[in-house]
Design goal:
This protein is α+β, with helices and mostly antiparallel strands and 164 residues long. The chain has a domain at 62-153: Phage tail protein beta-alpha-beta fold. 30% of the residues lie in helices and 21% in strands. The protein contains five helices and seven strands; from the N terminus they run αββαβαβαβαββ. Keywords: Signal.
């Protein structure tokens, strides 16, 4: 009689006791990302709401990395620009100049006519524009002491187009 009266309660307790012993899956914690500490920037108040960074920007440190746009115009009726004219125009304001042509290969690069597409070009980085104007047959190098930009011919595989 006791079993009939408390039977459902005992059965429920037995089921709950078995359920409590079931193996549980381990709980994984999400990975925490710790941000890197930022170096404090040196700034100066120049006005009430204006802070100026004291570090030079990239164009001041690397003048050939500045972004420019150039349009070459001429007062002549039939303007003929050479690549040397365009290279010099792109170097204006950077503090760099072209190397003097020392052999016939470089003279041929400098005296070759400028393609029309380069008469109005940019905005782009100066070093990228100089290399693109010279073309894939030329390797650009810079002399940081003399602040000059030089070009040397490179050997291209046969069948490669050598002029931009």
């Amino acid at each position: 009689m006791l079993l009939l009266r408390y039977g459902p309660v005992v059965a429920t307790l037995l089921l709950l006791a078995c359920a409590g012993n079931a193996p549980q899956s381990p709980v994984t914690q999400p990975a925490t990302v710790t941000p890197l500490p930022l170096a404090p920037a040196e700034v100066v108040h120049t006005a009430r709401y204006t802070l100026v960074n004291l570090a030079p920007d990239e164009a001041q440190q690397q003048p050939l990395h500045q972004i420019m746009r150039h349009t070459l115009t001429s007062k002549k009726k039939t303007p003929l620009f050479t690549r040397a004219d365009a290279l010099r125009a792109w170097l204006t304001g950077t503090g760099y100049s072209l190397c003097l042509p020392t052999d016939n290969d470089i003279r041929s690069l400098f005296s070759s006519p400028l393609p029309d597409v380069w008469r109005n070009a940019g905005p782009m980085r100066v070093d990228v524009a100089l290399q693109a104007m010279a073309g894939p047959a030329w390797q650009m190098s810079t002399d940081e002491l003399a602040h000059t930009v030089c070009f040397q011919p490179v050997m291209l595989p046969p069948g490669t187009v050598g002029d931009a």
